[in-house]
Amino acid sequence: MRIWRVILALPVLTLTLGGCGWMSVSGPAATDILAGQRDPMSLNYAVVKLTPKVVEVLSKNLPRLATFVGNQRPRDITFGVGDVLSVTIFEAASGGLFIPAEGAVRPGNFVAIPNQAVDIHGNISVPYAGSIRARGRTQVEVQDAIVTALKNRAIEPQVIVSMVEQKTSMISILGEGRAARIPATASPERMLDVISRAGLVAVGGSTGAAGAETWVLLERNGKRAIAPFGALIYEPVNNVYVHPNDTIYLYREPQTFLSFGAVGTQQQIPFGTWRLSLAEAISKSGGLIDTQADPGSVFLYRGEAREVAEAMGIDVSPYEGPVIPVIYTINLRDPAGLFLASSFEMRNKDILYASNSVSVESTKFMNYLNTVNTTIQGPITTVTSAYGLRNIIRGTGAVPSTFVTGGTTTVVASPTP
């Protein structure tokens, strides 16, 4: 009965010694992680159990362009300072303001005003109409303004305003070592249309392996949004409209995660694709070691934005700064755990950690006890052997025999003849 008590107490003793740092381990014990931070001098963190609600909150806060503020069809192109415009004025009959009485011999009942740039005040000059506001107005609005200024002097005037040289309403596309500044078109274009028209398909020149590491940054009116390049292709909702004066930046950033603990490979592992789930990350790290890992104690370390942490139900008041340290825990003993792991998307620099099972720590402890016992028995066996060898050499005295049974050493002396 006493033996069974000792056996049952071993796991508790093992966890106690492991938590105190007596046993060698590759990382924190699951019980220490779940207990929360107990060292006031160390970094505080939040523990979040992976649930369908948590996965839903995270999926709504992925780095995507679909969530960009002001994601709607762009407005019509307006003129700006420096744009070069042409103005053509038509009259219904000759003998008016612009068409002389002998206008029948002319090729048409119109007159073309010399091309002119919108001045620093945002105006253009039209004969008999004076300064016409052009900056911030569309083509139709400028045409109507000129007609209004001439309708009491010309014969049923009609006006056509055209863009000769576009200097504003441009779109800037930047890449690693490449750049292009192209004019916005009258017909709305989406991200892939503009990137293709600028000749920057992806950093590295393809949407293959290099495209998997390519990210897109969109800046508009002082606000930014980023997304992996693959999201523009495989999730069409992220292929948003581009507005005049937008800036698009394509850059390469290899995505990696770290794996530690009871997994097949403990190293930095590249994603290899534009999107990677937690289940795929576990597989890429060699999976959980069957003889070592505790499937119920798989953890993922990540820093989450403060608003995302609040949406998951974390009390963020004890934490400082915009980033909250979060440790996600997932139970893969639950058959549904793999579904959750397949829906959880990894991010760059995530840390995957699998804790050892209690049985492994118990085995370590028992091996430690066996090592201590062997260390104690070694000198005893050596002295006994030396004593017996001396008696053999002298031919006198008893030759002891040493028997080792479990943790007990028995010395039996042979009778003297």
User: Beta-sheet strand percentage?
Assistant: 25-35%
Sheet with most strands: 6 strands, mixed
Number of helices: 11
Structural class: alpha+beta
Number of E-state strands = 20
Low-confidence stretches: 203-207
Distance between the termini: 45 Å
Q: Kindly state the mean pLDDT as a whole number?
A: 83
Please compute the radius of gyration using only Cα atoms.
Answer: 39 Å
Q: Give the fraction of residues assigned to helices.
A: 25-40%
- Strand order in the sheet with the most strands: 1-17-16-18-14-15
How does the overall form come out from the CA principal axes? rod-shaped
What does this structure look like?
The chain contains eleven helices and 20 strands. It has 417 residues and is an alpha+beta fold. Helix 1 (2-19) packs across helix 11 (358-394). The protein is rod-shaped and about 150 Å long. The two termini are 45 Å apart. 25% of the residues are buried.
List the helices and strands and how they pair.
Elements: H1 2-19, H2 30-35, E1 46-49, H3 52-60, E2 84-90, E3 110-117, E4 123-126, E5 130-133, H4 139-150, E6 158-165, E7 170-175, E8 178-183, E9 189-190, H5 191-198, H6 209-212, E10 214-220, E11 223-228, H7 229-234, E12 241-242, E13 247-252, E14 256-261, E15 268-270, H8 278-284, E16 293-305, H9 306-311, E17 323-330, H10 337-343, E18 350-356, H11 358-394, E19 400-405, E20 408-413
Parallel strand pairs: 1-17, 7-13, 14-18
Antiparallel strand pairs: 2-3, 2-6, 4-5, 7-8, 9-12, 10-11, 10-13, 14-15, 16-17, 16-18, 19-20
